[in-house]
């Protein structure tokens, strides 16, 4: 290369870069005392600590998600456990009544009535309620007409017999009632 080319190159690249001295940053400032950690080293250390905390938090969060899914799964699997415990109490009373089946008919009837009352109370505790239809107007949303009967005593469309009650769980119909509906004496019965 000729002197002219070297001179042009030097002008184009600017002044020649100086070599950095140990513990000197790019701007030429001296770092910490000789042998002490520089600002860059401190930032690297802080970054490593932050990364470690992040990794631990992510692991804790993943463990939390797994634990929450397991608890939810168990909750769904055993959601009826308390209901079953209540129903077993009713079953115990029925078995007790059966063991006294040779007893006086009035005592047996009284025992069965108490068991029925207990069963209705337990269902009510779980917001399961029956709705009697006798004497009410037939509602196709809640009732299924099993048969029709001509009746001069009841208005047409009135429920005069009930084979099964309609049952609700909270506000949802879970079983339609099976009923007998009155029709006018002029209409044929089914």
Summed over residues and divided by their number, the pLDDT gives a mean of 83
Strand order of the largest sheet: 1-4-5
Instruction: Please state the structural category.
Output: alpha+beta
Q: Specify the CATH architecture of the domain at 127-190.
A: Roll
**What is the makeup of the main sheet?**
3 strands, antiparallel
**Element-level helix/strand string:** HHHHEEEEEE
Helix-residue proportion? 40-55%
How many strands? 6
Basic shape: elongated
Q: Proportion of β residues?
A: 15-25%
CATH superfamily name of the domain at 127-190?
Head domain of nucleotide exchange factor GrpE
| Gyration radius, in Å | 43 Å
At the fold tier of CATH, the topology name of the domain at 127-190 is Nucleotide Exchange Factor Grpe, Chain A, domain 2
Q: In DSSP terms, counting alpha (H) and pi (I) runs of 4 or more, how many helices?
A: 4
Poorly predicted runs of 5 or more residues: 14-18, 28-32
How far apart lie the N and C ends? 119 Å
* CATH secondary-structure class of the domain at 127-190: Mainly Beta
Oligomeric form of this entry?
single chain
